[in-house]
Amino acid sequence: MSKIVISEFMDEAAVQSLRAHHTVELDETFCERPGDLAIAVADADALIVRNRTQVTAELVAKAPNLKAVGRLGVGLDNIDLKACKQRDIAVLPAIGANAASVAEYVLCTAMMLLRAPAFSGTTDLQDGKWPRTALSQGREIANKSMGIIGFGSIGQTTADVARAAGFAIRAHDDFLPADHDAWRTTKRAATLKELLIGSDVVSLHCPLTKDTHNLIGANELAAMKPGAILINTARGGIVDEKSLAQTLRSGHLGGAAIDVFTSEPIDQATAEIFAGLTNVILTPHVAGVTIESNERISSITAENVLRVLKETTS
């Protein structure tokens, strides 16, 4: 039997499928205790993580038996891919498993922010008031465009869901060839600026790299249409949070939904940046996490890890 270490939450049915074949050490707080995690993986054959666990070169070096890193999600910026490759350690993201959840979050928050005034009156109505005029200033999806930055599987699924709801879709992706099949049904924006100036809603779906760090800064926010909405479900660090808060306060943007942050959990400085804003929705990196997506992600990850362990031990 091999040893599998799980450092963050995973669906119980998937954990049991792993226990049926191997020894499993599960501790959801390992992601917060790198020293203890290093001790746990010293004799481990596989490690399963989400986004908070940092799989560094140092951690990999302390796990001489490691054969697989299962990723409960798709982003790989918390995993040292070079260190894993040098050791022939398989890195196994659950590609596509949370695309529907992210797409629904984007559509939901876009609609809420477009109709934002309507959802702020609950307390008034509970107090017997009837602020109908004040709360009737929302906007419809009709004749609105959504611009998607990063047109991989999640970006394309988001496009499908938003298009079905009535958005006109355009997308920008520097790495997707111009002759790719995805562009047959979606208008391609050749440049980031072209997408920003023509979109009522901008949704981010690109990875965090040195090229995308602060991709959306003060200049890019200023280039967006007055009243436009920004949604980031990709990674913290892609949006300059301070510039975003300033732009929201200025009234240039209509709103923003931010699910990912440079510091997670958010620190006091980040909390203060967004303090008092009423045109922003902040969520704790949950856009891709629903009951259903967690089951899919966990199941796929368990299957991937079991396959690699079988291949490397047979």
Please supply descriptive tags for the structure shown above:
Rossmann fold, 7-stranded parallel beta sheet, alpha/beta, 2 domains, 12 strands, 15% strand, 36% helix, 5-stranded parallel beta sheet, 314 residues
Which secondary-structure class do the elements indicate? alpha/beta
Mean pLDDT: 96
Domain module tally: 2
Work out the helix count.
Answer: 12
CATH architecture of the largest domain: 3-Layer(aba) Sandwich
Structure in words:
This protein has helices spanning 12-19, 34-40, 57-61, 81-86, 99-114, 122-126, 153-165, 192-197, 218-223, 241-250, 268-274, 291-313; strands at residues 3-6, 23-26, 46-49, 68-71, 90-93, 145-149, 168-172, 187-188, 201-204, 229-232, 255-258, 280-282. With 314 residues, the chain is of the alpha/beta class. It folds into 2 domains: 3-95 and 292-313, Rossmann fold (3-Layer(aba) Sandwich), CATH 3.40.50.720; 99-282, Rossmann fold, CATH 3.40.50. The protein has a 7-stranded parallel β-sheet. The protein has a 5-stranded parallel β-sheet with strand order 2-1-3-4-5. Helix 1 (12-19) runs parallel beside helix 12 (291-313). The longest helix is centred in the last third of the chain and has 23 residues, at 291-313. The protein is globular, with a radius of gyration of 21 Å.
Please sum up the structure shown.
The protein has helices at 12-19, 34-40, 57-61, 81-86, 99-114, 122-126, 153-165, 192-197, 218-223, 241-250, 268-274, 291-313; strands at 3-6, 23-26, 46-49, 68-71, 90-93, 145-149, 168-172, 187-188, 201-204, 229-232, 255-258, 280-282. It has 314 residues and is of the alpha/beta class.
